[in-house]
Write a structure and sequence with these properties.
This protein is mainly β. The protein is built from three helices and 23 strands. Helix content is about 5%, strand content about 45%. It has a five-stranded mixed β-sheet with strand order 12-23-22-18-19. Strands 13, 14, 17, 20 and 21 form a five-stranded antiparallel β-sheet that branches.
């Protein structure tokens, strides 16, 4: 784990403001799975801040454009992004505690990072995926659920009124999910699907862009046994970002699985 930088702000986006007398401490961090198996990572459970008066602050539900991805990490995968904490403006001596013990219930290991000092040389983590990488056109089956990426396209505008920000583009994978579990299946674009770049930075589906797709993926109802559901999702990111992956977390607690499709 590396804490790359910390910034403070009283506002996140257009609608989220810190309470009076408080500020948001935004920690950009990276976490890598250096093992050979899938591991669970959750910034809300593993990271917290502590001040010099011994007050502890859990992660806030406030979010930046790049919240760090929680869920399972594949072997060699990096999760990179921001964890937000709301703290008093006068809180001093802030440190971040990170519990590696969440990866291993039989051994307690915690590291403490001083957020008020900066190393002479900032270390980083390099993603080196140790799992099979799929290509558009491939389908993956796991415990009765089949996921396929049929193709991918890019656009800078969708419809008459939705345009990517300057220097950005929409990356639009065409996906299909088939339910052969024998039970109704709930699938969440927010919890199970991401686009990730080569550094581990993850992007959630762009709500505005996805809403303009004529054949967008619909998650408004369960997928019935034997049913397939197909559609597109739009992700907004910097033009030309490469390598680029679309990931699907099967959310199977007894047999964890996460699959990567290389989009470019």
């Amino acid at each position: 784990m590396v804490a790359r930088e910390v910034t403070k702000t009283e506002k996140l986006g257009e609608f989220t403001e810190a309470e009076s007398g408080n500020t948001f401490a935004v920690v950009r961090m990276a976490v890598k799975n250096t093992g050979s198996e899938f591991v669970d990572f959750n910034s809300f459970l593993q990271a917290r801040l502590k001040d010099d008066s011994n007050h502890v602050y859990d992660a806030s539900f406030g979010s930046t454009d790049h919240p760090i991805e929680s869920g399972i990490l594949a072997a060699g995968e990096v999760a990179r992004g921001d964890v937000v904490f709301e703290v008093p403006k006068n809180a001093g001596g802030l440190t971040m505690q990170f519990d590696f013990s969440t990866f291993d219930f039989f051994e307690f290991e915690r590291v403490t990072v001083n957020l008020e000092s900066k190393a002479d040389s900032i270390q980083d983590l390099k993603q080196s995926l140790q799992v099979d990488i799929q290509s558009p056109g491939d389908a993956v089956d796991h415990e009765g659920v089949s996921v396929a990426v049929h193709g991918v396209r890019t656009e800078t505008e969708l419809g008459s009124f939705t345009q990517a920000e300057d220097g950005n583009e929409y990356v639009i994978p065409d996906i299909e999910i088939t339910n052969d579990t024998g039970e109704p299946l709930n699938v969440s674009t927010a919890l199970q699907m991401r686009v990730k770049d080569g550094s581990g930075l993850a992007f959630m589906a762009d709500i505005g862009g996805s809403s303009q797709l004529s054949q967008g993926y619909s998650e408004g109802s369960e997928i019935a046994p034997g049913e397939s559901r197909r559609g597109e999702l739009a992700y907004q990111l910097e033009q030309g970002t490469s390598p680029l992956y679309w990931t699907f977390n099967f959310l199977n607690l007894s047999n964890e699985m996460k699959t990567f499709w290389k989009l470019r």
